[in-house]
Amino acid sequence: MSHLFRRRTPINRPWFFKKVEYPSENSRRLCESAENLEVSSWKSMKGLVRCPANYAPLSPISFLERAAKVYRDRTSVVYGSLKFTWKETFVRCVKLASALTQLGISRGDVVATLAPNVPAMQELHFAVPMAGAVLCTLNTRHDSTMISVLLRHSEAKIIFVDHQLLHVARGAFDLLAENYVKPPILVRIREHNTTHPTSSVSSTYEYESFLAGGDAEFVVRRPRTERDPISINYTSGTTSRPKGVVYNHRGAYLNALATMSLHGMISLPVYLWTVPMFHCNGWCLIWGLAALGGTNVCLRHVSPKEIFDNIVVNQVTHMGGAPTVLNMIVNSSDRKQLPHKVEMMTGGAPPPPSILSKIEELGFRVSHLYGLTETYGPGTSCVWKPEWDSLPREEQLRLKARQGVEHYGLEEVDVRDSVTMESVPADGVTIGEIMFRGNTVMSGYLKDEKATEEAFAGGWFRSGDLAVKHEDGYVEMKDRLKDIVISGGENISTVEVETVLYRHPAVLEAAVVARPDNHWGQTPCAFVKLKEGFEVSSQEIIDFCRDHLPHYMAPRTVVFEDLPKTSTGKIQKFILREKAKALGSLF
Amino acid sequence: MSHLFRRRTPINRPWFFKKVEYPSENSRRLCESAENLEVSSWKSMKGLVRCPANYAPLSPISFLERAAKVYRDRTSVVYGSLKFTWKETFVRCVKLASALTQLGISRGDVVATLAPNVPAMQELHFAVPMAGAVLCTLNTRHDSTMISVLLRHSEAKIIFVDHQLLHVARGAFDLLAENYVKPPILVRIREHNTTHPTSSVSSTYEYESFLAGGDAEFVVRRPRTERDPISINYTSGTTSRPKGVVYNHRGAYLNALATMSLHGMISLPVYLWTVPMFHCNGWCLIWGLAALGGTNVCLRHVSPKEIFDNIVVNQVTHMGGAPTVLNMIVNSSDRKQLPHKVEMMTGGAPPPPSILSKIEELGFRVSHLYGLTETYGPGTSCVWKPEWDSLPREEQLRLKARQGVEHYGLEEVDVRDSVTMESVPADGVTIGEIMFRGNTVMSGYLKDEKATEEAFAGGWFRSGDLAVKHEDGYVEMKDRLKDIVISGGENISTVEVETVLYRHPAVLEAAVVARPDNHWGQTPCAFVKLKEGFEVSSQEIIDFCRDHLPHYMAPRTVVFEDLPKTSTGKIQKFILREKAKALGSLF
């Protein structure tokens, strides 16, 4: 019994209430409802019970079980010429879960993946939880060193590795071995319809034959409580120190539904996978698509040609992508007019209005959402108001670039002063930190009680993003807390400077960071990648910014080069900050 | 503290597991997950917490709080010339909740209503839970005797009464007084834009001034646990003994989302209230519409003219209604072609194909759902498959009349043998009982532990409805368990006989019940209401049935008269059964 008690302590003990003062009325209100979670005071309500007939822990596993019945003959997955129905997907997932347990996986064990958006990734999102285990989807851009660190931190027992990434995994295994750590069991994911030379290492498995060895009659392991972990998502590395964000079954279920609502999905959507599945579990849509009988169109490589081909062939209705994906589409020679509307959800960074405008001309209808790994992906969206339809285009794009309002899975998103926890006035000017609270906020950072405590200090999840709140309640992000440039005592939103840079006809990509300055403290430093065939000088860029911004906000330095990015398309500002620092003071 | 412990016992004790044997593998599987609800065995998952930042009890109150921000200027309610925005609705609900507490309402107290689909009903659905209280919406067709019984059973402290139903409430109060029971406080709901003579009874309140006395700064009382009761729905009386079905906040939240999905609602739907709000809390849509910023079009009287006028003026997108409402529409001289598609959800009884066909010609797109008061209203729907688009019309209507498959808020709907609990084969022939399990099944029957236990015996909620399961997994209801006619040892589905009766051109409404018979045990007896201007003989009806059914299924008796109905349009077969019994044996 002892390990049961050990585990209950961190999950259920509200350490929180003892340490934190609640300054505002609003927070005190929360307290009442949360402190008495298991206590109620109904007087004469006899005859009420909780039993299997009327209670089940929320879990996205139920979406798949239902899909196998309701949408049994609908296409669940398409990948080139490969197709599965929901019935087939269900049976494959049961067998895969069974195979995992045959290999010794038990409740709470971690199973890792290192793979792009191939069908196995979709299956593992169900099969691993169905074995009672926790899915840890590793970023495919990581190198062997990082993978070895994360495998060690997560204590993964098995890792599923795409055939193109075997060398990365092997490198990580070598590093683990050097440190006397036993590497996980490796299961290779072969490309569909190809034969690979049999692995020379006998200790590895191959995905299809591994799955085939599972028992189709395996009894699925449902979570014991709905707050049991379902996955670990290591933050993608805009900072240099990744943290293991833990999701639970309840949050995954609720965020899947709320995210589908954000996407405007009703029945039988067809979703093109340009968002990495390893990132926030594909915004929880891998789970959600099962609830609506949707089709997952898998894509190994995200290129404009592949995107347009798949939209046409598979009659894609929805897709998502970081602004860099949108940028890639509008600047590609493969771009074409779409034969039907495609709902495009963009997130990760505010989409520059110039790109928004161009992509909508092609037939995409872009919605803007915002969230963090810690909020299961999407947490807010810029909900469109019908009265905006008649506004000038420029005004529409400006409104749409805002992060908006919380989806219905959350209790509240607010902009608050990081110290006093006071809500900032809805004046569009006062900057505060975006904060979240609700069921679609992570359980915490794996094995990092201090980081968890800091993230939740004050009863809210602190995003680290700076924003203003507009009169209509919509939130607009101004910068990452650590990205903001403070020059001569003035806050400069790097996002605002970047928006102007993107309007310059020669600029393909831009990022602004702080450069240390002996006089001003910091000055804005722009890193710019030009479009092919264009040539401009630093001074031209600076002048352009001075024409469109208050002078103190214009960059003092412009560096032309390729920008370092995460696999999800986010520019890695911490690398640029290091570079700007290395430049030294301007004067 | 003692009352806290008293309350915990009935809610949390799984009395269930001790008494019931689980015959099938499937049930044993449920056991595992439910018995260990609060226990898990994660080993090294340190750093995880539950706190106000990442946990809130699910409650539809959150939908309204969000709507007040996200949809603040959108129309929440329309009622003739009266309109409120979501911001206004929110403020009014807060004040109403405050006014309730000023009158002494505390957690767990019951607040009753006796009113048609007027705006006050929508507000009370939020305001009563926001005061921590439990809403009990009484059927507007009940007489004073029934109301007095239900007020006494529910122990309601306050009752909100529509001005047209004051006499019913007063009659009930008199009956309570005769029995030395203190009647609840009465709050009159006046018609908008009218003045009524001031009540001669000084102890009553008037809705608008009562609400105005509330404090807009009142701190909303969220539920302490998400399984706290939110409402009591007395079953509508197809049986003569009503039971108080208790809903909880979690179920209301989850069923609201699932029901919106059934309706195909995305953003800003406009819903016409022909379904009584007092019935299953309007299928949980009163709560759900707040999540999507929808508009509630209120309707005091359901008439074809009012329906068509409101559809046009308010650009209604969705509505619902029992087959009798559909019947009323297609047989009305006020019917007209719709200017735009309206999604129409029908439920309560299988819609006769002939009516389905006619109403779709007018521009309604009909979907068929099924559920019971005990399942928060809708639990299944006949999910349409695109491949059915190309089938012959007759075949389409036949498919659509089936009850279908569970929505995603439930774990499972199945057809099982009532005794062995074995799932029946999916052969379209073997009859069993429709059973439900999942989070959108009631907490139980108020103060009726025995009835609760019986309803949940075997780990499923037993609907009492008989059905077959088709090869595609779709359920088709054949009859109520107690409605089926057993003649010469053969089961006769009264639904099948009624379907044939509705196809007769002279028949407006029909219901079949068992008539006792000395020779056959029972014979089918049809009660028929003819369309205006039509005249046919019993023999003609009997011959028509013999032409379209096996002879043993054709009615032996036909009675022409008006059919007794509940306010939700369900025919009250228990009254007809009494009448058929009074006829005595045929031979």
Automatic annotation (TrEMBL), chains A, B:
GO biological process, one term: phenylpropanoid metabolic process
Domain AMP-dependent synthetase/ligase: residue ranges: 64-446
Pathways per UniProt: Phytoalexin biosynthesis; 3,4',5-trihydroxystilbene biosynthesis; 3,4',5-trihydroxystilbene from trans-4-coumarate: step 1/2
Domain AMP-binding enzyme C-terminal per the UniProt entry, residue ranges: 496-570
Keyword Chloroplast: no
Pfam families: AMP-binding (PF00501), AMP-binding_C (PF13193)
InterPro entries: AMP-bd_C (IPR025110), AMP-bd_C_sf (IPR045851), AMP-binding_CS (IPR020845), AMP-dep_synth/lig_dom (IPR000873), ANL_N_sf (IPR042099)
Family: Belongs to the ATP-dependent AMP-binding enzyme family.
UniProt protein name: Acyl-activating enzyme 2
Organism field: Sesamum alatum
